[in-house]
Amino acid sequence: EVISDEHGIDAAGNYVGDSTLQLDRISVYYNEASSHKYVPRSVLVDLEPGTMDSVRSGAFGQLFRPDNFIFGQTGAGNNWAKGHYTEGAELVDSVLDIVRKECEHCDCLQGFQLTHSLGGGTGSGMGTLLISKIREEYPDRIMNTFSVMPSPKVSDTVVEPYNATLSVHQLVENTDETYCID
């Protein structure tokens, strides 16, 4: 919602801004569809369908391309290894196909931004798997992450620190910039 607001895009994908600067830079995050609506250049991923249903039914849910919602059915159960080696590994090729399609629509691909949590299994395990695969395929592009760090003040899931610890090594190896959000 914040990025849409900054670029003058409403929940239906219409430009409602008042600045030529917004229009000049709108292609950083959006593709223009044939109906003169703007669609976010994004891929939404989870290993369970619940969060995708929440996004779709939210205020900005109709803004995203339906094909860019990729989800599994089982979840990662707050387990980094399931996200990285089993459940996430089964889904990562589908995600990479959508990432490639989005990259093909770019005039000048600069890099990637990934927002994920390091506490659960999907964001930590599958997130770092996806980062390493993107880095392998696009080694000369910038990789930035906005990584939500676990906190005992927010969640009492005991494995969150382990998931974060396993992820940090991957982030050091495969990202150019990681912004830790607490």
TrEMBL record:
Gene3D superfamilies: Tubulin/FtsZ, GTPase domain
A GO term, aspect molecular function: GTP binding
Subcellular localization: Cytoplasm, Cytoskeleton
Occurrences of domain Tubulin/FtsZ GTPase (ranges): 26-182
GO annotation, biological process: microtubule-based process
Keyword Cytoplasm tagged: yes
Domain of life: Eukaryota
Keywords annotated in UniProt: Cytoplasm, Cytoskeleton, GTP-binding, Microtubule, Nucleotide-binding
A GO term from the CC aspect: microtubule
The keyword DNA-binding belongs to this UniProt entry's keyword annotation: no
Main location as per UniProt: cytoplasm
Known function: Tubulin is the major constituent of microtubules, a cylinder consisting of laterally associated linear protofilaments composed of alpha- and beta-tubulin heterodimers. Microtubules grow by the addition of GTP-tubulin dimers to the microtubule end, where a stabilizing cap forms. Below the cap, tubulin dimers are in GDP-bound state, owing to GTPase activity of alpha-tubulin.
Record's subunit section: Dimer of alpha and beta chains. A typical microtubule is a hollow water-filled tube with an outer diameter of 25 nm and an inner diameter of 15 nM. Alpha-beta heterodimers associate head-to-tail to form protofilaments running lengthwise along the microtubule wall with the beta-tubulin subunit facing the microtubule plus end conferring a structural polarity. Microtubules usually have 13 protofilaments but different protofilament numbers can be found in some organisms and specialized cells.
Family recorded in the similarity comment: Belongs to the tubulin family.
Name used for this protein in its record: Tubulin beta chain
The species this protein was found in: Nothobranchius korthausae
Lineage: Eukaryota, Metazoa, Chordata, Craniata, Vertebrata
Gene designation per UniProt: TUBB6
